[in-house]
Amino acid sequence: MKRTKTMFAVPALVCVLTSWAAVSPGGARLDGPVPGFKAVERTAAGERPDDAVLARPVALAFDGKEILVADAQECAIKVFAEDGSFLRSIGRKGAGPGEFSFPSGVCVSGGRIFVADKFNFRVQILDREGKPEGGFRLDFPPDKIYALGEGTILVTSNPSGRPIRENMLRLFDPSGALLWEGLASRSFGDPVYDTFRNMFLVCPDGSDGFFIVYRSEERAVLRFGPKGDALGGVPVDERYAFKPVRLPFKGPTKVLLGFCWASAFDRGRLYLLEPEAVDGRDLGPGRRVSVFGRDGRMQAVIDLPRRIHRFTVDGDRIYALDEEGELGVFEVAR
Amino acid sequence: MKKLIVAVLAGLVLLSAVLFFPPSVAAEEVGGCFQEHVTCREHALNLDAPWYQVTLFLTLCDLALAKCILHLSI
User: Fold this and answer.
1) Mean pLDDT, 10 residues at a time, over chain A (334 residues)?
2) Are A54 and A328 in contact (CB under 8 A)?
């Protein structure tokens, strides 16, 4: 009799514990596995001209017709068709109009190309063929650049590494007038650790606002309105796991919880690229993209055929820069 | 009264010295060290390399800054 009771009690306890563990500390119920999809390669094959080679691609943007890639080493914006075939190269090294020094960000707004021209401390505006159409000077080296609605341009910057609070986000109008600045850097007493804690990604939300995703330690995605007004955080589904990495910071080695390597937003969905272990001890770009709704619930995972660094999404298509610095076009197989 | 006059005169001499002499060359060069440090960090952060490598690169930037400043002050 005692044995029979135990036979029933143990599975019952397991069921209770399992259902209890499925509820996150924040109270959001986790519903088990999410649907998985595979993305297949759709990049146009064939020989590429020398201009098409990407030496150090650091940012990409898709405007619905063309893919623009900022090549920091070649000091150029390389333009590709939707299938990944090369179209043209814009700009060259220098400090004059139409020239760049480490272009680190690119976006398209109102049919014009905006480039974060890092070491020239400016934003340059060009037409689709690369003809300069002005721009504006900055008192900091810009990093990434995004087009929000109504001609608003969002420019990011990296903290200088000094233990002071520095704003990392600024909104400008196309003439260069500063509209808003915010998202101050945080200091934890170790310059290198601080650098990682302040690494973040931006995703315009398609309705003039934007999301901020910290790349480590933070589970919540921050929402901002079109004028930089903070709209609170969206807790990300706990089925999306942190990836810990031990790093040699000042003092004893610390564990940093890696969260996201790159991100994108398309048609109401947030896409987060999971970091992946590299050589056993390091954390690098991954090949799995998790898809979330605006409420932070995980809806699907997409496995890519290779590791990617940066990406953007348009419907079923993913345009990405892979770990070899090549542009890849992938399609989610249904 | 004498003490007050001496203090005021000493203050004026110090103020004149501060206003007359241009900023020291060393201070400008230290500014150059910080500028190079920012450039070094920007390169490190745009590497898109795995994080252990970025950590080492950032540490090298900090060491280069220290070396640059110490070299100027010796």
Assistant:
1) 49 41 42 89 86 94 96 97 96 97 96 97 96 96 93 95 92 96 92 92 94 96 96 95 88 88 97 94 95 96 97 97 95 90
2) no
Q: What distance in Å separates residue A56's CA from the closest CA in chain B?
A: 8
Between chains, do A192 and B45 touch, taking CB under 8 Å as contact? Answer: no
CA nearest to A127, candidates A115, A116, A141, A145 = A115
Question: Mind telling me how many Å the CA of A289 is from chain B's nearest CA?
Answer: 17
- CATH of the domain spanning A29-333: 2.120.10.30
Length of chain B: 74
Whether A177 and B53 have beta carbons less than 8 Å apart is answered as no
CB contact under 8 A, A141 and B45: no
CB contacts < 8 A (A, B): 71
Q: How many helices (H) and strands (E) does chain B have?
A: 3, 0
Residue of B47, B48, B62 to mutate for A, most A C-beta atoms under 10 A = B48
Q: How far is CA A245 from CA A241, A258, A279, in A?
A: 13, 7, 12
User: B45 and A143 in contact by Cβ < 8 A?
Assistant: yes
CA–chain centroid gap for A6, Å, is: 51
Q: Which of B41, B53, B56 sits opposite A158 (nearest CB)?
A: B41
- Tally of CB atoms within 10 A around A299: 13
A258 part of contact set with chain B, CB < 8 Å? yes
Which strand ranges, in their side-by-side order, compose the sheet holding A200-204?
A: A200-204, A210-214, A220-224, A230-235
The set of residues, in sequence order, having a beta carbon less than 8 Å from that of B27 and lying 6+ positions away, is none
Could you state, in order of their start, the residue ranges of all structural domains in chain A?
Answer: 29-333
Pair A223, A231: CB distance under 8 Å = yes
Q: What are phi and psi of A257, to 5 degrees?
A: -90, 100
Residue with tokens 């970025």: B54
